[in-house]
Specification:
360 residues, 7-stranded antiparallel sheet, two-stranded antiparallel ribbon
Length: 360
């Protein structure tokens, strides 16, 4: 397996968004209308996804997180311009708050139909939407270091993004129910550390030779090596409507990827990793976080990471030091999931909750 070198610590991301009816806020199977009316400028950036009621925005390779977010903003404006004519609009939440699987349809594409045959009801109830982030690495060894570092901080990335406390019209009691749905898949969740790229290759080849996967796209870990692109891909996050929040998450992943080249990532018991992720899933940034430094909250841990990377000059090296001064203020705000719960308890209107996914 060849790891295709990419420009070190460049970034790109993919944002999955719902298409919903402008009046009822129900899912709208309208992706085909987007691709019939799409501007040439956005072809290749706005792409189809597994359901006809969603699309994926794929940024090009960028130097900074700010550039990635600007691609998202412009694409969402274009989707909504098309939708204004046809009665739908975009919504960026980790789950649709009240839709049922019977109201959706699978995009007719060979890969999606093959997945449906394998996954059955699991795929049919996949009314979930994520944010995926890529960081570039010059070689496989540096990528493995970045990958191992990311494993330790999956709860931080997840907690910052949580936006899926409702599903099938019910308050789940969790901040990211999307996470629990996704974990049902056979090759999803927290992956294992690797000592080398060769170790990853061995696992990949065994799965492929067994006929369980065809490519890296069939491995859905919370973070995965992506040799074809020369990146490490973070996949743990909910979709999110707050662009500065997305920029902060990308910045943290980029910064920790660079730090991993200077400091060897610690390795923790898998049960500790699972517990930390559960705390993020259940309580978002208020959840507790345990590592070798002791016990704290995820919010405080995030502040600590930002400060540590600042002291080490990482933000300045990535040329985003000035942006981080304002981006860290995101941590003073409630996560989107918490805002959704507050609105629901106040209004008892599940449809109003969906409007919190409108990009601001």
């Amino acid at each position: 397996m060849i790891f295709r070198s990419s420009k070190p610590f460049t970034v790109g991301a993919e944002l999955e968004v719902q298409l919903i009816d402008r009046e009822t806020f129900a899912l709208s199977n309208s992706s085909e209308l987007i691709f019939k009316n799409i501007s040439d400028r956005f072809k290749g950036i706005i792409q189809p996804e597994v359901l006809t009621s969603m699309v994926e925005i794929v940024s090009p390779v960028c130097e900074t997180p700010e550039e990635v977010v600007e691609h998202f903003r412009q694409s969402l404006v274009h989707i909504d311009e098309i939708g204004e004519k046809y009665g739908f609009r975009s919504c960026a939440l980790g789950t649709h708050s009240f839709a049922k699987k019977e109201e959706t349809s699978i995009t007719v594409k060979e890969r999606y139909l093959r997945l449906l045959q394998e996954l059955q009801i699991l795929l049919r109830q996949f009314l979930i939407y994520g944010l995926h982030i890529h960081v570039g690495f010059p070689d496989s060894a540096s990528a493995v270091r970045g990958y191992n570092m990311a494993i330790n901080y999956l709860p931080v990335f997840l907690a910052l993004s949580t936006s899926s406390p409702f599903f099938y019209g019910e308050y789940t009691g969790l901040h990211s129910y999307r996470t629990k749905i996704f974990e049902q898949l056979p090759r999803a969740g927290i992956p294992e550390y690797f000592d080398s790229f060769a170790q990853f290759e061995e696992l990949f080849n065994r799965l492929k030779e067994g006929g369980f996967i065809e490519s890296i796209k069939d491995i859905w870990w919370d973070v995965r090596l992506h040799p074809d692109l020369g990146t490490v891909e973070l996949r743990v996050c909910d979709s999110n409507p707050e662009m500065d929040r997305i920029e902060l998450i990308i910045s943290l992943f980029q910064g920790l990827s660079l730090l991993a080249q200077e400091e060897k990532p610690e390795r923790h018991f898998h049960q500790i990793l699972k517990q930390n992720k559960w705390n993020a899933t259940r309580y978002s940034v208020s959840g507790r976080f345990i590592d070798s430094s002791g016990l704290t909250t995820i919010r405080k841990k995030t502040y600590s990471i930002i400060k540590d990377l600042e002291k080490k000059g990482i933000w300045d090296e990535l040329k985003i030091g000035d942006r981080m001064k304002s981006l860290k203020n995101v941590l003073k705000r409630r996560p989107v999931s918490e805002k959704m719960v507050i609105v629901y308890k106040k209004t008892q209107d599940i449809k109003v909750v969906e409007t919190l996914g409108f990009v601001r």
